């Protein structure tokens, strides 16, 4: 077997794939690294006016020179081909660095990763140190560069060239150059690799040679140290001390060895959560730091927290100079850019900053994009993370001082020994005095390491091992908090995955055209506070890839992250068979922090495997001679071939994978008896009853008892859920009536309904003969539909029936299970059976037919017996009746859970215009039209067929209806039209809205209006339409025109105004979801406009003059005309400036209303003026103008309220309270008004 094949044969099982040495090539000499120099200039904001090699004004010691891969072992690995250029570029991103004896030469550590074309990653860990330059050619070249620089500078400045000033003199100074040792591994064992490389460097710098030649240690880690098996720990030996690493088990979070504690320390919890949020939403993220390891630590930390999702876009934690153009890419990316000391951030020009999240790691700050949704439960999330950090002595604020890092505070290396010493000193007075004494005498604590090795910690572990254990426990607990959030938010994601392809090949072929996830149904089930974030997140590439992996798992082995995530969801369900808490928007804290930390500690305390010790190799004598301070040239012949006799090197990848898979499945799917008993006890304590894993092993009596308890538990839960839904809907009123405690409210209606859907699904699935792939409620309704197709007319209770001809109105809409199912099936937005079942439940609940529909489903006993076993809940008659009774109680409150959730569906609407036949021409020669408006939009103008007072049209969901615009073109001889009201019904939900009118439409009659804006309210169903729902007959409603004929007293008018203003104030003090329609409060029958009309009509001289009725708008127009004429004659020049501006505003508004293209009448214009004045806070400024106008004396009696100064001042004070609220008018009210 060749060396290459030997090296590659066991590669999948090896701890490390390559050992690499990078540094200076003495044969080629010094080569300027122009790309690295270009990056330096860009970061300093300089413009390059000439080639870089002509503009090297920097000191030669600070310039960048090309490095090279001096050696790598083995030559190649089949599983992971060696990329020499990439490794060289990432091992020494800044190129070679030179120092003299006067400069700091502390070793540095950083890591990197390489992403291959298939998405797999390879990790690199680099230890960089400085080695003395022994090549005379290199020293001479450096001396020459300084001489060239001295000649270019003035003599006075050249006299300062010395070691102290950063110069170099070959006769006086010692020259050092950077060299890098690198391990390339398939998994991110950062701490283990860092310790191994550190010990290799110590072996070179120690006074005495290492116990064995360095080739023995390199050969050992390349060929004789295996990867730890999943869920196991491994110990192998470095040059001086053993090194321990561990690998998570198959049910645990995947390996992540980068210290999250340092990431939180650098950024703080608040900033990190914001960065995490931007990463989830796939924005452009640029990390910025002087230190490479900080870039890598933050990048790996943030991507690790994405579990179970994975970053799918450009990922370059350390951006080399040659790839700087990546920053111009118009795609999401996560990249790290090294900054230079003293660089001004403002001079760093970055493209597309509007969508960029810029993270300045060294300054502990973050610049966020302009607008993006926040992560759900962000304050509680931050609080839980802060508590975890504080338990480990880490401040959640962030911004740690550089001294908390390793020896070199400037380069940001990972904290290790110094942190341990610092923690040891804190709180110990004796040790603090010893530390002070050591400082005075010049003794360094680090120097003790060479005498006694690494200090002893607890349980015989060294301080370094203690620090690694602490970091590992902190890592896993922080990650569990993040993973818990996703487990809560996506606990039911599988129900909305669309799996329609018969095989993998057809799915891959049609992938782009297929819908894989029922987004509309998923969002309809989520708590409202989650929707802004989730609606964006489910559109990301990482979520799409996650769903793709889920679909492909039915044909292939599950992707590891998906397997772990699904296992966690299954475990949550095993704990609690559909806990209501999973449906709540209340924050759910992570419950496995202690267990996860214990699993890590147990693996590190109890070593499962020990690798072969390093040993002497068959080497040539005389090569690789030890020389202190210099890393020797290793013998490549002994490092290119692995051993052929150890027990694992010949193990094939296939056999290993088979064993690992079998063990993982065994550990993942089986629970021991103790764990089963633990789950059962916890379930009982929560009042839940779990099905035993193997009911076949139990006696029939025990089975019956278990099912009876389950039925009893479902009924109890139904009672609790319906009560909670009623209490939540009634709010404080329910608490005052003693139906609940004050803290029971606060859940969103959407969350409670989704929880009810869960309960119904569990009830319908209990005792089912054959479990279906789709939801069991949907299965039952489909079976019922098929059974009843022949009897559709019976279920529909006959065709639609009109009322008697003597009372023209809306035809009745009968309840029908089948018809509702057809409506749901026609909704193209819903892709899955579970989505359809839940939409049907929402529709039935909104129509107050849920109990009735379910009772109708269960009325066919033959079908129920066919689908369900004898012990099923739906075949327990007494419990079933109680269950339906509890659901019937939900009819006492109004839900819009269907209308408010499915906002984009097409809905058929029926509109009926009801004239007053005794006073009007029921037949009209004009061409009428109607426009229906709701909270979600309007229908647009819909032409009505002449002399047909009824129409049906399809329109995108308008939400709750608010206004109807009704008009005609006044054509023909019989154009005048007296309309009593307009009725509009949503043909799917059955909600009927009544829009009272009671006015004429036509020129020369009433106020001359050809168009009226009618304000509607939800009409209660009458007894004929009720069909058993127990609702009362609605009260008689009067039109505004009829109301105006009654002359109320002055006290009644003032009371009406006070009530109208009070209702608007109450509207704004309610939670936004409970406010209802502001338009009704402004323009409804008891609204503000109607109350002010009564005020202005009091004492108004509206007697007929020459057969013409005078309206309030006539008074307003005459007052405005007087103001305009007085202004032109100069009578208002002496008026105070604010009053003059008020006159201008009133004239401007009246002119805009009169010049509107709409054919609204005079009363409609007055309504519009009041609404605009209330919106723009001008009413109380206009009233004094109208009162002071001389026109009022001609048009109002002496006793009129408008001429009573005291009453007007009281009215102004009442209207003043509206200025505290932002009044917004519907588009239908202000259409065509140009202000």
TrEMBL record:
UniProt biased composition (Polar residues): 645-655
Record key words, sorted: Guanine-nucleotide releasing factor, Membrane, Repeat
Positions of the UniProt region annotated as Disordered: 645-666
GO terms for MF: guanyl-nucleotide exchange factor activity; small GTPase binding
Domain of life from the UniProt record: Eukaryota
InterPro entries attached to this UniProt entry: cDENN_dom, dDENN_dom, DEN5A/B, DENN_C, PLAT/LH2_dom, PLAT/LH2_dom_sf, PLAT_RAB6IP1, Run_dom
Domain PLAT positions: 907-1015
Any one annotated GO CC term: membrane
Residue stretches making up the UDENN domain: 49-557
Subcellular location as annotated: Membrane
Residues in RUN domain copies: 747-903, 1079-1230
Record-stated family: Belongs to the RAB6IP1 family.
Record-given protein name: DENN/MADD domain containing 5B
Higher taxonomy: Eukaryota, Metazoa, Chordata, Craniata, Vertebrata
């Amino acid at each position: 077997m060749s060396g290459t094949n030997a090296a590659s044969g066991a590669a999948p099982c090896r701890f490390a794939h390559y050992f690499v040495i990078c540094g200076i090539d003495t044969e080629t000499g010094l080569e300027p690294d122009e790309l690295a120099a270009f990056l330096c200039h860009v970061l300093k904001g300089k413009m390059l006016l000439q080639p870089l090699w002509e503009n090297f004004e920097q000191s030669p010691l600070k310039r960048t020179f090309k490095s090279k891969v001096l050696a790598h072992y083995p030559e190649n690995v089949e599983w992971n081909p060696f990329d020499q250029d990439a490794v060289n570029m990432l091992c020494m991103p800044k190129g070679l660095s030179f120092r003299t004896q006067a400069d700091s030469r502390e070793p540095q550590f950083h890591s990197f990763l390489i992403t291959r074309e298939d998405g797999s990653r390879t990790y690199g860990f680099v230890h960089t140190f400085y080695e003395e330059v022994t090549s005379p050619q290199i020293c001479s070249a450096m001396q020459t560069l300084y001489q060239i620089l001295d000649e270019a500078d003035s003599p006075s400045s050249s006299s300062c060239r010395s070691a102290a000033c950063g110069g170099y003199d070959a006769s006086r100074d010692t020259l050092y150059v950077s060299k890098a040792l690198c391990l390339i591994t398939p998994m991110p064992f950062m701490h283990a690799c860092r310790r191994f490389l550190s010990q290799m460097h110590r072996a070179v710098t120690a006074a005495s040679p290492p116990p064995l030649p360095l080739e023995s240690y390199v050969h050992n880690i390349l060929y004789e140290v295996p990867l730890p098996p999943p869920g196991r720990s491994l110990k192998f030996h470095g040059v001086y001390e053993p090194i321990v690493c561990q690998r998570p088990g198959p049910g645990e979070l995947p390996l992540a060895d980068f210290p999250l504690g340092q990431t939180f320390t650098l950024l703080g919890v608040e900033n990190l959560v914001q960065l995490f949020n931007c990463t989830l939403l796939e924005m452009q993220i640029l990390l910025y730091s002087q230190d490479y390891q900080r870039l890598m630590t933050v990048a790996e930390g943030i991507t690790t927290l994405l579990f179970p999702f994975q970053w799918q876009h450009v990922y370059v934690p350390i951006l080399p100079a040659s790839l700087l153009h990546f920053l111009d890419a118009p795609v999401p990316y996560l990249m790290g850019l090294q900054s230079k000391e003293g660089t001004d951030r403002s001079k760093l020009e970055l493209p597309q900053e509007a969508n960029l999240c810029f993270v300045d790691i060294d300054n502990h700050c973050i610049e966020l994009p302009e607008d993006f949704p926040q992560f759900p439960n962000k304050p509680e999330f931050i609080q839980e993370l802060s508590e975890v950090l504080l338990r480990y002595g880490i401040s959640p604020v962030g911004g740690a001082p550089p001294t908390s890092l390793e020896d070199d505070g400037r380069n940001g290396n990972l904290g290790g020994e110094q942190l341990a010493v610092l923690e040891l000193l804190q709180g110990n007075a004796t040790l603090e005095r010893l530390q002070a004494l050591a400082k005075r005498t010049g003794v360094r604590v680090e120097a003790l390491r060479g005498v006694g090795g690494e200090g002893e910690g607890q349980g015989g572990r060294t301080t370094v091992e203690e620090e690694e254990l602490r970091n590992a426990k902190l890592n896993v607990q922080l990650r569990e908090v993040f993973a818990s959030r996703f487990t809560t938010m996506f606990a039911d994601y599988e129900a909305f995955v669309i799996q329609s392809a018969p095989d993998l090949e057809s799915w891959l072929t049609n992938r782009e055209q297929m819908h894989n996830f029922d987004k509309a149904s998923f969002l309809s089930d989520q708590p409202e506070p989650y929707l802004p974030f989730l609606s964006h997140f489910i559109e990301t590439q990482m979520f799409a890839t996650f769903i793709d992996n889920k679909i492909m798992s039915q044909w292939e082995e599950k992707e590891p992250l998906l397997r772990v995530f699904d296992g966690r969801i299954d475990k949550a369900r095993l704990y609690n068979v559909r806990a209501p808490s999973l449906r709540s928007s209340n924050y759910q804290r992570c419950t496995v922090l202690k267990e996860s930390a214990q699993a890590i500690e147990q693996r590190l305390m109890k070593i499962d495997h020990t690798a072969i010790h390093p040993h002497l190799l068959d080497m040539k004598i005389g090569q690789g001679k030890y020389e202190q301070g210099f890393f020797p040239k290793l013998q490549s012949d002994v490092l290119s071939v692995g051993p052929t006799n150890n027990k694992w090197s010949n193990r094939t990848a296939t056999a290993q994978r088979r064993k690992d898979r079998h063990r993982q499945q065994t550990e993942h799917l089986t629970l021991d008896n103790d764990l089963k008993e633990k789950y059962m006890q916890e379930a009982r304590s929560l009042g839940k009853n779990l099905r035993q894993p193997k009911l076949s092993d139990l006696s029939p009596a025990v089975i019956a008892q278990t099912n009876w308890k389950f039925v009893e538990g479902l009924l109890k839960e139904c009672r609790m859920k319906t009560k909670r839904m009623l209490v939540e809907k009634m709010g404080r009123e329910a608490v005052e009536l003693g139906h609940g405690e004050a803290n029971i409210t606060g859940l969103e209606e959407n969350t409670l309904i989704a929880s009810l859907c869960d309960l119904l699904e569990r009830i319908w699935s209990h005792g089912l003969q054959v479990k279906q792939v789709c939801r069991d409620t949907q299965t039952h309704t489909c079976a019922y539909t098929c059974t009843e197709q022949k009897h559709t007319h019976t279920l529909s209770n006959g065709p639609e029936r009109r009322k008697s001809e003597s009372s023209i109105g809306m035809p009745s809409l009968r309840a029908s299970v089948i018809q509702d199912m057809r409506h749901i099936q026609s909704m193209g937005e819903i892709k899955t059976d579970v989505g359809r079942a839940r939409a049907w439940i929402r529709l039935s609940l909104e129509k107050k037919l849920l109990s009735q529909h379910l009772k109708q489903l269960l009325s066919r006993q033959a079908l129920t017996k066919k689908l369900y076993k004898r012990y099923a809940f739906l075949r327990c008659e007494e419990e079933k009746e109680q269950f339906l009774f509890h659901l019937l109680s939900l009819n006492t409150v109004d839900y819009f859970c269907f209308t408010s959730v499915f906002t984009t569906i097409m809905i058929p609407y029926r509109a009926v215009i009801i004239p007053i036949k005794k006073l009007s021409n029921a037949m009209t020669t004009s061409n009428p039209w109607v426009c229906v408006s709701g909270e979600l939009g309007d229908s647009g103008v819909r032409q009505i067929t002449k002399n047909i007072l009824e129409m049906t049209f399809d329109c995108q969901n308008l939400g709750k209806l608010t206004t109807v615009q009704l008009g005609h073109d006044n054509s023909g001889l019989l154009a005048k039209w007296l309309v009593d009201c307009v009725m509009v019904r949503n043909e799917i939900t059955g909600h009927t809205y009544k829009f009272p009118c009671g006015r004429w439409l036509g020129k020369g009659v009433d106020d001359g209006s050809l168009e009226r804006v009618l304000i509607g309210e939800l009409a209660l169903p009458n007894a004929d339409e009720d069909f058993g729902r127990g609702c009362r007959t609605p009260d008689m409603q009067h039109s505004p025109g009829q109301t105006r004929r009654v002359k109320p007293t002055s006290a009644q008018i003032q009371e009406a105004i006070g009530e109208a203003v009070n209702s608007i104030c109450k509207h704004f003090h309610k939670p936004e979801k409970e406010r209802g329609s502001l338009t009704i409060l402004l323009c409804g029958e008891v609204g503000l406009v109607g109350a002010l009309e009564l005020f202005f009509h009091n004492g108004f001289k509206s007697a007929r003059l020459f057969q013409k009725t005078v309206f309030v708008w006539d008074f307003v127009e005459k007052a405005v005309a007087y103001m305009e004429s007085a202004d032109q004659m100069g009578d208002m020049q002496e008026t105070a400036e604010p009053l003059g501006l008020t006159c201008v505003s009133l004239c401007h508004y009246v002119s805009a209303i009169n010049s509107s293209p709409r054919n609204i009448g005079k009363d409609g214009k007055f309504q519009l003026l009041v609404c605009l004045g209330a919106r723009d806070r001008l009413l109380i400024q206009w009233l004094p103008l109208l009162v002071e106008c001389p026109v009022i004396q001609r048009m109002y009696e002496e006793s009129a309220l408008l001429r009573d100064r005291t009453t007007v001042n009281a009215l102004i004070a009442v209207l003043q309270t509206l200025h505290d609220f932002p009044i917004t008018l519907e588009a239908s009210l202000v259409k065509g008004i140009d202000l």
